[in-house]
């Protein structure tokens, strides 16, 4: 039997990069597609193509000959990024999602997985830190995160219509804040776990770091290994409705800082800044349906997953500092 051929879009990004490794380990032939190369390491994909999936011709090229599609490409980032560029994010992601879905259907792809987000959930259900965990059916009546969350919710429905009207097999995964090694850690798109790892790595013991908000806002965070395992299990399942993929381990942002400081071995003080973006007040995943469908749920605790994450980010911070120091040394050496 020949190997199954699968496409991972967004393979130059965080989750896509790890998913390509996961699928390669399971014997798939993998095509990775992104608008840019992976930032930190070369992709293990059998083939990696640079394409702009806002263009229909590029979507058609990407899906050609593929049995299954994991559509992870999106213009995305942490709350600072997604709340600051509604027009471009909504436009870019609308073009990518709708055209990838149509191109995959036209190419007779067998299964299409869409990476949605916890940002589809109504803001009125997330206005207290002691949030009730969010169930899949809570998404309506809708009041999603403006721009980014609205597009995710709309594309979920579009996938559902392709299933209802054309029998096209789609899978809808609502990720809750994913972290781990090789995730964006600076430049403005980083999410809270990576941003705080970076700030702690750059601080000396006894320093204060800036923490957005008052630290009482809550989230659940999912380690990347659980994320790719869950994506794969959902793709293999027969369930085509939306599914949460996250942990239900609720932590406040101040607590997140404490865990990272503990891992670093440094004494870290917090300087809260309520003028910075904060997003919803509380967000947690209800995993009942995930458990029913898969008999599985993410299980890696935050305090475990942050150990390799902090190690990788502090290594990157150190390497960057050495590079910058090296660059400064070059003229001095040349001048000698
Ligand atoms: P990421 O930014 O690391 O990866 C997304 C990739 O998509 C990037 O490499 C980017 O270059 C690529 N891309 C953007 N525009 C493109 C275009 N026009 N053509 C081709 N490629 C393009 O983000 P991620 O964390 O890996 O997220 C993957 C998916 O999961 C996204 O759809 C995102 O919305 C969703 N998601 C992620 C999280 C999370 O916590 N990481 C949470 C909710 C949803
Ligand atoms: N990014 C960031 N950087 N957030 C910080 C920082 C910091 O230095 N310090 C504290 N925070 C706080 C934010 O104010 C927010 O309240 C919380 O940490 C979480 O921020 P993010 O991780 O940036 O985003 P989010 O959880 O609000 O939303 C993210 O997760 C969604 C899925 O659950 C985003 O990445 C969305 O794009 C994603 O869909």
Automatic annotation (TrEMBL):
Pfam families in the cross-refs: Epimerase
Domain NAD-dependent epimerase/dehydratase: start-end pairs: 6-240
Entry keyword set: NAD
Gene3D superfamilies attached to this UniProt entry: NAD(P)-binding Rossmann-like Domain, UDP-galactose 4-epimerase, domain 1
InterPro entries reported in the protein's UniProt record: Epimerase_deHydtase (IPR001509), GDP-Man_epi (IPR033890), NAD(P)-bd_dom_sf (IPR036291)
Protein name, as recorded: NAD-dependent epimerase/dehydratase family protein
């Amino acid at each position: 039997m020949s190997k199954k051929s699968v496409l991972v879009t967004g393979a130059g990004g965080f989750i896509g990069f790890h998913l390509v490794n996961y699928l390669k380990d399971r014997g798939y032939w993998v095509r990775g597609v992104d608008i840019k190369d992976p930032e930190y390491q070369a992709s293990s994909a059998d083939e990696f193509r640079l394409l702009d999936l806002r263009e229909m011709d590029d979507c058609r090229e990407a899906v050609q000959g593929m049995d299954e599609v994991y559509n992870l490409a999106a213009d995305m980032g942490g709350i600072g990024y997604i709340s600051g560029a509604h027009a471009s994010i909504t436009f870019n992601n609308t073009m990518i999602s709708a055209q990838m879905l149509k191109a995959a259907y036209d190419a007779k792809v067998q299964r299409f997985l869409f990476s949605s987000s916890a940002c589809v959930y109504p803001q009125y259900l997330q206005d207290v830190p002691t949030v009730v965990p969010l169930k899949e059916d809570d998404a309506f009546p809708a009041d999603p995160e403006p721009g980014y969350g609205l597009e995710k919710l709309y594309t979920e429905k579009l996938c559902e219509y392709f299933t209802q009207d054309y029998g096209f097999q789609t899978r809808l995964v609502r990720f809750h804040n994913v972290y781990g090694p090789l995730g964006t850690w600076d430049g403005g798109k980083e999410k809270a776990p990576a941003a705080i790892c970076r700030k702690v790595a750059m601080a000396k013991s006894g320093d204060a770091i800036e923490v957005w908000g008052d630290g009482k806002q809550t989230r659940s965070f999912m380690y990347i290994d659980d994320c790719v395992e869950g994506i794969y299990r959902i793709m293999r399942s027969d369930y085509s409705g939306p599914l949460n993929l996250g942990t239900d381990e609720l932590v406040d942002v101040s607590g997140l800082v404490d865990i990272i400081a503990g891992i670093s071995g440094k004494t870290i003080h917090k300087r809260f800044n309520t003028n910075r973006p904060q997003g919803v007040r509380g967000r947690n995943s209800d995993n009942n349906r995930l458990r029913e469908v898969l008999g599985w749920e993410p299980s890696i605790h935050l305090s475990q997953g942050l150990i390799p994450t902090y190690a990788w980010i502090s290594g990157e911070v150190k390497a960057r500092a050495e590079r910058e120091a090296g660059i400064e040394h070059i003229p001095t050496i040349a001048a000698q």
